């Protein structure tokens, strides 16, 4: 896939980790909702309802992150686990969490969840479909990231451009690991659920099986 980086973003690719945000890949601000692929997975009420703790299954898999300008983030993921070789059954899972983020001095992002609020739902398509809900909270360090203008965003017609956020997984020791799928800016301001903590207690383990 062809991607043309505008000058500022390309220059930033070198030694990004050492630069503060103000000069690091900050082609536009992080603020907004960012979504992979054609945007089937988006943060917000259409993905997760915190009043009933229920997920709405998106049409296709993907990931989405949202950020506010005042340090809040939200995450939505709908993924398929293809590595269950044992019985060749497809396991799908959805994750929702939110919390606060900081941009660290070395340019990395620390995403801290509100532990009481996050959930993961696993769906085992084999035989009879089992659905399990778990309390979920996972701190994420994004060691490296940058924003660029994507000239071939795929889901738009030829000639269109879209802001894209490229984040990297934590490769250990704070170093950038594998590149995540690029996320495209789909809403600004972000489409998010209330950014404050919603629940007071963490309920451990599976509490519901249907
Ligand atoms: C860079 O990020 C800062 C902080 O989010 C923001 O205030 C600023 O507007 C951004 N720069 C551009 C060009 O959008
Ligand atoms: C994915 O499959 C592997 C291997 O069966 C298993 O260890 C892992 O827990 C699964 N992860 C999820 C999120 O289903
Ligand atoms: C960058 O800063 C974060 C937060 O302080 C830290 O966890 C991470 O290890 C640092 N990365 C490197 C490469 O030192």
From TrEMBL:
InterPro entries, per the entry: Rot1
Transmembrane segments: none
GO cellular component: endoplasmic reticulum membrane
Pfam families, alphabetized: Rot1
Signal peptide extent: 1-24
GO BP: 'de novo' protein folding
GO molecular function: unfolded protein binding
Record bears the keyword Signal: yes
Keyword check for Signal: yes
Keywords: Signal
Protein name: Uncharacterized protein
UniProt source species: Tilletiaria anomala (strain ATCC 24038 / CBS 436.72 / UBC 951)
